[in-house]
Structure formats: C-alpha cells, structure tokens
Amino acid sequence: MLDQPIARIDRLRVTFQTRDGPVAGVADLSFDINPGETVCVVGESGSGKSVSSLSLMRLVEFGGGEIAGGRLLFDRREGGETDLTQSTQEAMRGIRGNEIGMIFQEPMTALNPVFTVGRQLTEGLRLHRGMSRRQARARALELLRQVRMPEPERRLRQYPHELSGGMRQRVVIAMALACAPRLLIADEPTTALDVTIQAEILALIDRLKRETGTAVMFITHDMAVVAQMADRVVVMHQGRKVEEGPVERLFEAPQHAYTRALLAAVPRLGEMRGKPAPEPMRLLGADDQRIAPIPGSTTPLLRVRNLTTRFAVRGGLFRRTVAQVHAVEDVSFTLNRGRTLSLVGESGCGKSTAGRSILRLVEPQAGQVHLDETDVTALAPAELRRARRDMQMIFQDPFASLNPQMRLFDQVSEPLRNFNIASGSALTDRVAALFDRVHLPRSFLRRYPHELSGGQRQRVAIARALALNPKLIIADEAVSALDVSVQAQVLNLMMELQADLGLSFLFISHDMAVVERVSHDVAVMYLGRIVEIGPRAAVFENPQHPYTKALIKAVPVADPQRRKGEKDLNFKPIPSPIHPVGHVPEPSVYAQAGTDHFVLTTASGY
C-alpha cells in the first residue's frame, strides 16, 4: 500500500547506563515516515536525534544503548511490516545498507582506514546485490560521479586519509545510496560539505526520493537545510518530541518556545548588510546580550606572503614522485590584531592546508609567514614549539582531535602542563573556568570523548585551544558540528574573547551565513588560490569573481517559500589540482575592485 508508512517509531524509549545510573537518551518518541517523504528531525546536540536513527538501524546497542520500550515498525520490500526491535542481528544485516541506508555524521569514523574507497563502496553491492567485481566497480564509479567527486577513478584506489573532509563525506553518501534503499537515514549528511556540494547533494537526495519513492529521515541542526528539504519536521529537546508539523507551518507559526529559539538563532545571509563590524548572534532568553561591534585594529598580526604547499603523488615500483598536488598556490594576505579573516571555498580548495601550513603542521614549499615580527617559516623546532603558544588551532573533526583514552580534564589541562603555566588547584580552577566559558557542565571533566555528543566534543576542542591565551586562533570548521543554538553561543563566545583579549581569528568555513556574521574580511579560495579578497561587505554585497557569485547563490535560505530548484544548482566541476612534476603555474595577478578589495584576473580556471 502506497499510503502505508515505510517506518513507524512508536513510543520509543532508549536508555544508557552511566556511573550515575540509567539515563534516557530518547523517551516516548513517536512519528511516521511515509514513502517519498522527507521527515527532518531537528534539535540541539544531545537531544536524541542520532540515538533515534541508530535505534532504527539497531546500532544503538553497539554504542552502549538499550531499547527499553516501544516498537520500530518497518515495511520491508518482501515480507511486509516487521518490528525491528524483535529482529535478530542476523536479520538486521540483510536490512542495513540494503533496505535502510545510513549517512553517518563523522565521515572519518564511518569509513574503515585500512580499506580503499573502492573496496568499501563495492562491498555492499556484492553482498546485497550479488554483483560481480566488475559490475560493482562500474556502479561505484557511477555513484562517485553522482555525488560530484573529482577524479572518481583515482579516488577508488585511495584510502580515506588521502581525502579531504568533504570528499570523505561524499564517499559515505555514495555508500548509503548504493543499493537504492527504501529508507535513507541522513545524520547531518552535509555538515562537512561546502555550500555548492551541499546544494547538489540535497538536490540528489531529493531527486532519489521523487524517482524511487525512497523515504528520507533527515537529521540536521541547519534550519536552512530543513527549509530546503523537509516535508514534515519533528523538533526534539532532551530526548522528547516537543513539536511536529508541516515545514511551512513550523517556520511561519512555531508553537513551542524551543522551536522559536531554534529559528531565532539561525544566521541568515544578508542580515549583516550595512553593518561595518561583526555582531553577536541572537540567543533565546537573552534580552540584551549586546557585545559592542568589534572594529579591530590596523596593526598587522599575521602576514602571509606567496605561501605555496604541494604534496607529492608517488607511483611506480620505486614509489617515485610522478606528479604534485598544488594544494596552496601563491597565497598572500594580512590579518590585523583583533580582527577575523575568513577563508571560504569548496572542499579540497586548500583552505585547511593553508591553515596548517601557517602553523607548520604541514611544511610549505615556499613563502613567508610572519606572526608579529617572528618569521614562523624560519624557526628551528624548539623555537617553533615556543611560538605555538601564541597560535592555536581548532580542528574540523573533534573526535579525531581528542584522545579517546584520556579524560577531558587531562586533555584540556595538557597544554597548561606542557608549558608549566599552572599546577594543582590553580590548574583545576583554570580548566573548570574554560569549561564554563564554552558552556559545558563541570561534571563533564571526568568524562571521556565517546561519552559526549559531536557538538559537545567540539566545545572541548575550543576550550583546549583557549587554554594558553593565544594571539591567533585558526578555526578550521570550528562550528560546523554544532547545532544552531550552541553555534550561536560559541560564535558569541569567540566574539566576546576577541573584544576582551584582542584575539585574531583565521576562520576557515564553508557556511557563508556564519562567515558573513563573524568576519571583518573574507578571502575566497578556489584550486589553491585566493580568487577574491576584501572587506566582508564588499565581498558579500558586491562579489566580482564568478566563483564567489556561485558560492553565494548556492547558500540555502531558511524559508520554505524560497527553495532552490535543481536548475539553480548547476555548478562547474572542479578541475584537478594535480600537475606533472616541473609544472610552473602562472603567477597570481589581482585587479583592484574597491578599497582593499582585490580579484584574481589570471590562473583562476573558473
């Protein structure tokens, strides 16, 4: 029957055993998912969104959870409606990946590091569909092209660590779509993706839904994505459903105070028009949380000149260098004290590599990096270690950047111990104060990373970066894993620290609405080069480069009445950044488009 739901969650209750006794991750949750329908489940980090999806896959037991009550009814291709809570794990193996596909939140932990991308993509096809090796490989190539992966043939031979965060997420999406499942569970599927890829992936999932009748359970904290994708919305708070309804009604007339809070905290592109400096995000329950606009200073802190970073591509019997990846090519900019410069661009454009090259976590081939009067590129190892007190990094993937075997207290206090800044009760007080600043309860100090949600882990990473009171923080997708209300708190915290301490931020992000909110200046990267750089107002309100215009056009709007159609989302494929050994790129030549506003006129390729 077409009108019968594909999945029904009925009074679901999931509990977790903790040192302090059982905790309900989900309590009395009920909703249906119909064929060809997208149900978006939204709520804060830790609200039970992911737990409900893992319960449907019966994976929650492997994470320490227990389905303590309720039913999970699933309409199978053959055999009709089945209560998944009563299914054996052997029966579930025939359902997972075949009839229920899942896109996980953190691509690095969802992929097996010891197998190639091709092996992981073809495994489900050979197991569930009985394809030959050749057929499965052809289908894997087709899937990678569907998710717009550059050089798909080469990617099949690579391992997950050789791909950028966005590329890894595209592999995870391709794996979930491989067997054309009846129900697709998407847990934050576009978190690690830049706006153009996000727009195309959303259009891809939407097209799959229309063509095959696949039902989609879409878990996200991005209300603009909800407005673009949802037919119906379920709002969760502290493990319970607080509101459910059609997407138009929910955005126009939210009934619950918590839903109104979520919508109020959404950054919207264009809100900063006419405002000269960054301003804090709106927070619910805070009538007057005004931070005065932060003008910053005119004194340079970080000067980057002609930075170039390339990676060797090895091949042949003797693993010789046969080509080079031109990850960062001739990048120059200046960041003043107390200001925020945002680097934006697509996955694989060199944003993260540029940030790592500045800290010398990756050694650049050429160029100069001056922090104050110190030439970072010329420092010996011992001097570089001392210089790193003044420059810290918040990484993109909080699970990978935290040690799973150390308590959170030990991880945040480690920088303070390493530089002999505090010990004993002073150290305890300092770490507790850092937890207060990033809005984490002090009871979390004795927890381990796996006991926290993705957003909570990212706040621990931010607390650790703040521990040494640095002058410069490089934030690599620092708020991409956070739901909107926590994102607003963290961004306000970053602005508060900037106002109080004169911090400078190099903010690496793909979220154009957040970039517009926090930035003084913006640099747009494409294929390793900065194609446009200037004051935030100039870049957003008067973009000159075709690539900048495409990025801004791709941003989803938090309004269901303004959904983008597929015809609006035709973007040029990204050329390969790999060139033969000895290739000499053109120098970067810029034209001035306004005061401090420059546009690349050569070598852009867009």
Number of strands: 23
Instruction: Trace the largest sheet across and list its strands.
Output: 16-17-18-13-19-20-23-22
What is the percent of helical residues?
25-40%
Distance between the termini: 49 Å
Keywords: ATP-binding, Cell inner membrane, Cell membrane, Membrane, Nucleotide-binding, Translocase, Transport
Pfam families: ABC_tran, oligo_HPY
Organism: Marinovum algicola
GO cellular component, one term: plasma membrane
Explain the overall architecture.
InterPro entries: AAA+_ATPase, ABC_Ni/Peptide_Import, ABC_transporter-like_ATP-bd, ABC_transporter-like_CS, Oligopep_ABC_C, P-loop_NTPase. Pfam families: ABC_tran, oligo_HPY. The protein has 606 residues and is α/β, with parallel strands linked by helices. The protein has a domain at 1-86 and 221-266: Rossmann fold. 33% of the residues lie in helices and 27% in strands. The protein has 21 helices and 23 strands. The strands form 4 sheets. It has an 8-stranded mixed beta sheet with strand order 16-17-18-13-19-20-23-22, with helices on both faces. β14 (366-371) and β15 (374-375) form a beta hairpin. α15 runs parallel beside α17 (454-466). It is globular, with a radius of gyration of 24 Å. It starts with 6 loop residues before the first strand and ends in a 6-residue tail after the last strand.
